[in-house]
Input
Amino acid sequence: MPLAEDTVREQLKKVIDPELFVNIVDLGLIYEVDIVEIENEDDKYNVNIEMTMTSPMCPAGPQLVAECKKFTGELEQVNDVEVKVVMEPQWTPDLMTEDAKDQLGIF
Output
């Protein structure tokens, strides 16, 4: 069974921003999840994640990247995980889900 983007995003919800206490998916920090099947390997995939931070100088950045790799790598079908941090487009609170806005009291 192919690895689905939704499966990876659910796994990434385990990564909690240590300052805001909301997962990075609901915060809107995950821009892209690219799943690449490995040739000659049954049901094995490399996952490329493109994400941003709430600010360019986010002190939690290295921790968030490491946890993205850790939790995504725990999926049985995942061979390798690459995480690229981008600052374009710039993150704004508009990217948050309604659940995240509720958790943070943003209306």
Notes: The chain has a mean pLDDT of 95. Residues 5-91 form a domain with the GMP Synthetase; Chain A, domain 3 fold (CATH 3.30.300.130). Residues 37 and 97 are 29 Å apart (CA to CA). The longest strand covers residues 30-37.
